[in-house]
Design goal:
heterodimer, A: 284 residues, mainly alpha, 15 helices, 76% helix, 0% strand, disordered N terminus, B: 318 residues, 69% helix, globular, transmembrane helix (chain A)
Chain lengths: 284, 318
């Protein structure tokens, strides 16, 4: 609102209708058309869906398509598998990252500086996915959920350490001092003083890791492969590649809708947090 | 690693300032056990070391071996894997394509994101709703985004259908089948998927602008255009750095969108590094895939890191 008053009234009046009109047009073309395509195609019989177009289905068989995609794509299994790797990864990234960030933020020695620099190198360097596979095989973790959790945690720790270290540096150390005076040991200080103060940055890290890990198919392909441990995106890849390659648009899009709903639901529920978390982390 | 030192330049001086008084005040403390024991950092360092750093170190070893699905034992073979990717043309081609891809994505993601942020800058209910709408593609998995655009842009797909009815005659542009233009199309899709995130970050940058500076510019008679280019855009430097950095790094590691739209085609013209690794790994040629992974690592260190350090420096100078 303040931005409006910053402009003289004469400038504002022609823009008053131009802005909403532009927004509506851009949204309809860039977001509306792709999502409409997904929605209508997921309700069409295969014969109609072979050539994907924007027309309404002549014969609506949404229920049938969704049921079929649900069974063939093993939605329940994929959902559980996704949760089983994403939730522990997020928890570990947050907990281990916070511990390391606390040490890096408060200790000033050369060792702490070097280890911090090393720990956040993962922000820039690409994970060496091929040799990860080799290493996991030697550790007996190839194809296991534990291996996948380890890989995701290793990949995203840099993000959380980077955000959390910056955040802790801006927290007054007096709070810790006070707790220490009261006789609290390091573990108590960490869990009762530091962790609760980290809430905003925890939101950021959670969202970042969830966004990436929930939709990842590349690393999951190398580490988990297909089979019983496949996550939702891996299952989608298999549905799309099954039988006649990409002639199953009706099933692919039914699957896309079911797979995207959890993330959209998380966003709708936590929207304010999501936005605040992402933006506060990026621009200080 | 080089840039990590510059990345926290903004946070460091304050931290040091605050440290000093507490150091002096609590001199006696140093004799007692440390306040932030190292073992709090150990689990993170161990996981990061074993599952991120170690594979990247091993990546300097395995490319020089004959590791593959067909060898029970691994032996050193020197440079023959690099020879192979150099001579079948994939090395030079994939470097070119990945770098082009990263630059185009950085341009589109930032262009779209900044345009949306400026369009939706005012905090009205209407604008807040549409910010969420433009954020939707960020929430949809990249693989799904790829399939959506594959259907939209297929030769007998939705876009050509719409264009046909608008033009009055059949249009059958092969959007994803041109050896020249398909890379551009795929990077546009990538930019589309992430424009919502760039928008949010630019919005945050626009919101954090000091009101008095803008007021002063207005009083000095600067118009909206002038204010934007002379004041607001330079003040967006941290947001630009963040967005360009994440776009470059993210798109050099791209896989899902390319795999779902073109799978590297037509004629390998969209084969970025990760598509190559995926394909060659599937053929069982692990060492050769690992050689490509090492090249990607070096490209990032040599090309991307200096760009990011430079952006960061530019931002601090302003």
């Amino acid at each position: 609102m303040t931005a409006v008053t910053a402009f003289p009234p004469a400038r504002r009046s022609p823009l008053r209708w131009a802005q909403p009109a532009a927004v509506l047009l851009v949204a309809a073309v860039t977001i509306g058309i792709p999502l409409w395509l997904v929605a209508v195609t997921s309700a069409k019989p295969q014969a109609e869906a072979i050539k994907p177009n924007l027309s309404l289905p002549h014969h609506v068989q949404a229920g049938e398509n969704y049921r079929q995609a649900f069974d063939q794509g093993k939605v329940i299994q994929g959902f559980v598998n996704s949760l089983l790797v994403v939730v522990p990864s997020v928890v570990l990234v947050l907990l281990l990252g916070a511990g390391a960030a606390w040490v890096f933020a408060r200790r000033t020695g050369r060792l702490a500086g070097t280890l911090y620099a090393l720990s956040i190198s993962g922000l820039l360097l690409p994970p060496a996915v091929i040799t990860i596979v080799m290493e996991l095989r030697q550790l007996g973790l190839a194809g296991t959920q534990l291996g996948m959790i380890a890989v995701y945690t290793g990949m995203y720790l840099s993000t959380s350490i980077f955000f959390m270290t910056g955040f802790i540096r801006n927290l007054p150390e007096e709070l810790e001092e006070a707790a220490r005076m009261d006789g609290a040991g390091p573990a108590r200080v960490f869990f009762q003083v530091i962790l609760p103060l980290l809430r905003p940055v925890i939101a950021t890290a959670t969202i970042m890791v969830m966004l990436f890990a929930w939709s990842d198919v590349f690393y999951a392909f190398f580490v988990l492969g297909g089979g019983d441990r496949a996550t939702l995106p891996l299952n989608l890849y298999q549905v799309a590649n099954a039988q006649l390659y990409l002639n199953n648009w009706h099933l692919i899009f039914a699957y896309v809708v079911m797979m995207s709903l959890p993330m959209v639901a998380v966003f709708v529920v936590a929207q304010r947090r999501v936005v605040a978390g992402i933006t506060s982390g990026a621009v200080k | 690693m080089v840039d990590t030192a510059t990345m926290d330049v903004s946070a460091n001086p304050q931290a040091k300032d605050r440290d000093r008084p507490s150091r002096q005040g609590g001199r006696g403390r140093s004799l007692r056990k440390p306040d932030q024991p190292w073992w709090f950092a150990l689990p993170a360092l161990a996981v990061f070391g074993v599952f991120f750093l170690l594979p990247n170190l091993l990546n300097f070893v395995y490319p020089f071996t004959d590791w593959s699905a067909f060898h029970p034992q691994i032996g050193f073979v020197g440079l023959s894997n690099f020879d192979a990717i150099l001579h079948d043309g994939s090395l030079a081609r994939d470097i070119r394509i990945t770098v082009e891809y990263a630059v185009l994505v950085a341009v589109f993601q930032n262009g779209f994101g900044l345009a949306l942020a400026l369009l939706l800058e005012r905090d009205t209910r209407f604008n807040r709703f549409f910010r969420a709408v433009f954020f939707l593609p960020v929430l949809i998995s990249a693989l799904a985004v790829g399939y959506i655009f594959r259907a939209l842009l297929a030769q007998d797909g939705a876009l050509n259908g719409v264009l046909s009815s608008l033009a009055g005659h059949p249009v059958d542009t092969p959007w994803l089948g041109s050896t020249t233009w398909t890379l551009l199309v795929v990077t546009l899709i990538h930019g589309w998927k992430w424009m919502g995130l760039a928008m949010l970050i630019y919005l945050a940058g626009l919101k954090s602008m000091p009101g008095d500076v803008l007021e002063a510019a207005r009083i000095d008679g600067a118009g909206a255009w002038r204010t934007f280019w002379s004041i607001r855009f330079p003040l967006l430097a941290p947001a630009v750095t963040f967005n360009v950095t994440t776009a470059l790094i993210g798109s050099m590691n791209t896989f899902d969108i390319v795999q779902a739209t073109t799978a590297g085609g037509p004629g390998s013209e969209t084969e970025v590094f990760n598509i190559y690794m995926f394909r060659i790994f599937g053929q069982g040629l692990y060492a050769q895939a690992s050689a490509m992974s090492l090249v990607l690592f070096l490209i990032v260190v040599v090309l991307a890191v200096p760009v990011i350090v430079g952006l960061r420096r530019r931002e601090n100078n302003q």
